[in-house]
Amino acid sequence: MFTLIKKIFSKKTASNDADTSELNENPNFVTDPAKIIQLLCAIEAKTAFCTIELNNSDETYTSHIIEVQATKQQILLDALVPDSGNALLKQCKALKLTTFLNNIHLSISITDISPTAPHGEPYFKAPLPKRIYYPQRRASPRIVISAYNLTFQGISNRTNFTVGGIVSDLSRSGIGLIINSSNSRLIRGDQLNNCTLTLPNDVSIHFDLLIRSSKPYSNSQTKLLIGGHFNQLKSTKEQNQLEQFFALAERSQIRQKKDY
Question: CA gyration radius for the chain?
Fold first, then answer.
């Protein structure tokens, strides 16, 4: 199989909330500001009524996002229904909003809420949330490819350290890496820039990688297992090369399972 992959690439053919301490290891949270705005705008576009819970009430209420004001880094929420919740919200100034987006349960804790009436109608405004609980379903399966010993290198946007490691698994949208933790200090939300993934026959793929999870690798104290999402592949040709490698490795894995 490895020989077959070499031959192909030798042609170089043209791609529920948790504690903050757990956040860096919880892939169910969205923390990237741009993606948070994207999710909020999607909820706003649905004009869906959301379930509202208050700390100072046992009752549940409904409301919806009126507007996402990205430039002001805030959102506008409609008044609660039933109306009794509005006075309570003015007291506690925080709520938990839950709804469904793309058939996935979504939950947001919103704080520092204050009443406003820009057009005479009673609304509430609040800063954009720092995170959204959104356990996204994987659009593309990951396959284990550690046997290929594919190498990876990138530069942390936060520490400016060069990070290198071995690829443990791969999907069409992301990658899993085994790296040395002594100098990486990578956490969820970091981005690795100018990344290079070396495929068989020295074919190089270049991209930026958004870190989605970081945890010890197999109880190791010196290695981390990093999960990331491709933020940008540098060229269509490289995207096709990566897709070709993934498809080949995926078919090989399927054949192996059939043999058992």
Answer: 23
Query: What is the C-alpha to C-alpha distance for residues 184 and 165, in angstroms, rounded to an integer?
Result: 10
Q: State pLDDT tens for residues 39-93.
A: 999 899 876 678 899 999 989 899 999 999 999 999 999 999 999 999 999 999 9
SS3 182: coil
The residue to which tokens 């100018």 are assigned: 194
Angstrom distance (rounded) from CA 18 to CA 23: 7
Distance CA 169, CA 167 (A): 6
Cβ–Cβ under 8 Å, residues 212 and 190: no
Which DSSP helix (H) or strand (E) runs through 52? strand 50-53
pLDDT tens for 86-143 read: 999 999 999 999 988 776 788 999 999 999 876 667 899 999 999 999 876 555 567 8
In the chain, the amino acid numbered 121 is E
Please tell me whether residue 62 adopts helix, strand or coil conformation.
strand
Sign of CA dihedral 222, 227, 232, 234: positive
Which residue type does 130 have? K
Beta strands at 104-110 and 143-144: parallel, antiparallel or unpaired? unpaired
Angle subtended by helix axes 2-10 and 236-259, to nearest 10 = 160
Take residue 124 and report the two structure tokens written for it. 């509430």
Tell me how far apart the alpha carbons of residues 59 and 63 are, in angstroms, rounded to a whole number. 13
